[in-house]
Amino acid sequence: MQRFDLKDGGVPSRERAITAAVAALDRGRLVAVPTETVYGLAADATNAPAVAGIYAAKGRPSFNPLIAHVCDIDMAMAHGILSPLARQLAGTFWPGPLTLVVPRRVGAEASVASIADLVTAGLETIALRMPANGVTLDVIRRLGRPIAAPSANRSGGISATSADDVIAELGPSVSVVLDDGASPVGVESTIVLLAEAAPRLLRPGGVPREAIERAIGQPLADNDHEPDDPQRPLAPGMLTSHYAPNARVRLDVTALEPGEAFLGFGPFFPEGLDKAVASANLSATGNVVEAACNLFRLLRELDRSGAAAIAVAPVPGGGLAEAIRDRLGRAAAPRR
Ligand code: AMP
Ligand code: MG
Which atom of ligand 1 is nearest to the CA of 125? Predict the structure, then answer.
């Protein structure tokens, strides 16, 4: 495994890193890429065996489709059918933490390699996103094809927001790791479905719902599908149990129980805090942007304390708080 540190800012090392990553992807290998949301485990999206390698490395169920990451709107339009509304959203929020699920373009031009069916898990729609990370965008541009990239962690576990997290969990499966420091947004992209009469929010994430509704001048419909029903694969990946640490997770606590670690938010002190096994705060000032950025790192940190459970303070409010509550709710859901 080759690891490249991009934080030193040198042009030669950046070039070497991009060249190594593109060569590995071109040979069907897996590359860990930084994005503004979380680290991705990437493969060439047009190479079916390489994409199969992502599912194997993560232990991910193959009915859970992947997001195809593109370097510009033209590459998105080569593989998906973008309505005027989809183009408006891409124009407003790309590059950035917004994924658009649109009808798949079938029989694309002969010069365009088609996306492996495994990426879309056989659906007639495709999830597309242009991430806001300069190095990863250069890798995609140089490769000339989209990369399929779910979060770089074992399926069902806590997402990876640093290169060290990726290596600890998936090291042996990855050929190249591009280390660009901590992921600045810290939660996954917002996913909007644009394949029905009205746009639908499939997953809250890094772009607040309110910002999208303001941009398009209409409300987003809610995700109404049964989360764990593989017969209705509208958004098969929205499994109820996800992002789970080894410890149990208990939400909206007002009092700690013995043996628990505490994850706080803002100036909130539950009863029994002095007896906590470990404690951390998502944001001492109650800032949801800071809280999102710290979420997965602190869940991992508290999990390492060996506590039987992680008790979490309420995280009220709008904006990114919706995505944080979504992730915490799944982390707390009964495990399968
Ligand atoms: P992850 O890569 O772990 O952030 O998960 C990607 C999410 O995108 C999963 O929850 C998938 O269910 C969702 N997704 C990907 N492709 C589609 C699609 N064509 N339709 C609906 N949801 C999708
Ligand atoms: Mg994930």
Answer: 19
